[in-house]
Amino acid sequence: MTVLPDDGLSLASEFPDAPHEQWQNLVAGVLRKSGKEVSGAEAEDALSTLLEDGLDTRPLYTARDAAPDPGLPGFAPFVRGGRAEGNTTGGWDVRQRHLTADNGAVLSDLENGVTSLWLGVGGTAIPVDALDRTLDGVYLDLAPVVLDAGDETAAAAERLLRLYEERASPRTRPGATWARTRWATRPARAGRRTTSRPSPVSRAAAPTGTRACGP
After folding, report:
1. Nearest C-alpha neighbor of 150 from the set 98, 183, 185, 190
2. DSSP 5-30
3. Model pTM greater than 0.90?
4. Positive or negative torsion for Cα 71, 90, 138, 173
5. At 68, is the secondary structure helix, strand, or coil?
6. What is the residue-wise DSSP string for 86-122?
7. How far is CA 193 from the centre of its chain?
8. Whole-angstrom Cα distance, residue 148 to residue 178?
9. Is 214 helix (H, G, I), strand (E, B) or coil?
10. How far apart are CA 154 and CA 159, in angstroms?
């Protein structure tokens, strides 16, 4: 039986750490053989891949690419939520889907048990410039909003974040409300993430679904 030393077994401990630049130079050497004259960061960029959603995947990730400390729930930078107790204090989040700019239906749902909103935006759903009137009277610091806007996500997000700034509540810490917003970048599709249960108020306006999220 092999007995490890008290301080463990550190593989390659006798070798110095290879700097990132050394790896880039090795990549440049390989690319040079294929006719590409690049060096340094350009060599690394040549192996990167731009995905359809705009994310750039790198060929090598190291400890220096680690995400910053997300902090604690309820505290800056609010990555883990705007409230220390979480967004579902009672254990459940009842989320209603809306595909039309029907402010009355939105307010009625919130008054009758719905705790968050899932808005289909763009295309045949809610127009981006109708978000203001759709959310008129909604306490945005209390009701989280999910935007399902497909190709219009950027415009819809900008519009919603401007609403947050315009309707800032003294009860809301800076940034806490923004942390309760969710973005769904894929085009809205009927039936996705939903169970079919049209509300009485919305039934005549458009198909809707309610999603209950447990702990």
Report:
1. 185
2. -TT---TTTTSPPPPHHHHHHHHHHH
3. no
4. negative
5. coil
6. -S-TTS-EEEEEE-S--HHHHHHHHHTT--EEEEEBS
7. 16
8. 16
9. coil
10. 9
Residue 68: asked if its preceding bond is cis (omega within 30°), the reply is: no
Give me the tens of pLDDT residue by residue for the chain, a chain 215 residues long. 566 566 666 666 677 778 889 989 999 999 988 888 888 889 889 989 999 888 889 998 888 888 788 888 777 777 777 667 765 566 678 899 999 999 999 999 999 999 899 999 998 999 999 999 999 999 888 888 999 998 899 999 999 999 988 887 544 444 434 445 555 544 444 333 433 333 332 332 333 445 544 44
Structure tokens at 161: 């974040």
The position carrying tokens 């989280």 is: 144
Contact criterion met (CB below 8 Å) for 89 and 97? no
Q: Can you tell me the distance from the alpha carbon of 172 to that of 78, in angstroms, rounded to the nearest whole number?
A: 12
Residue 27's identity, in one-letter code, is V
